[in-house]
Design a protein that fits this description.
Elements (H helix, E strand, L loop, with lengths): L1 H17 L4 H31 L9 H27 L4 H11 L1 H9 L6
Length: 120
């Protein structure tokens, strides 16, 4: 019984967050920022691979950027896989939702769960 009450409270809190008046604006800003940063991380990794193949020596003080972008790429990949699996369970296009969620992150999972399909 206690776990049922906790689950109901979590649903109420989730509903309050989703229905909050400025949530669509925040969600849109997160989508734009996340897409830009993920595109930048992919480009940064491609430049690193190209540089490694051509024996370029990057400054060592830039190593922290590579670690941050690798963590972001891995975490967004995991989110994309989860979204693709969840979309398949809902009879939606898993490739579309996987790629979308890879770029926008947790917002894509939230939209898939609530059934908003990326529309405001």
């Amino acid at each position: 019984m206690l776990s049922l009450n906790v689950r109901l409270m979590n649903l109420k809190v989730e509903a309050n967050i989703i229905n909050y008046s400025s949530f669509p604006l925040i969600k849109t800003l997160i989508k734009i920022l996340s897409t830009g940063l993920m595109t930048g991380a992919i480009i940064w990794e491609l430049v690193n691979i190209y540089g490694t193949l051509n024996n370029w020596q990057l400054p060592s003080h830039l190593n922290w950027i590579f670690w941050i972008d690798r963590i972001a790429l891995i975490s967004h990949s995991i989110e994309g896989i989860i979204a693709a699996y969840y979309a398949k369970l809902q009879d939606k296009n898993p490739l579309q939702y996987g790629i979308y969620t890879f770029f926008v992150g947790t917002v894509g999972l939230l939209e898939l769960k609530t059934g908003q399909d990326g529309k405001e």
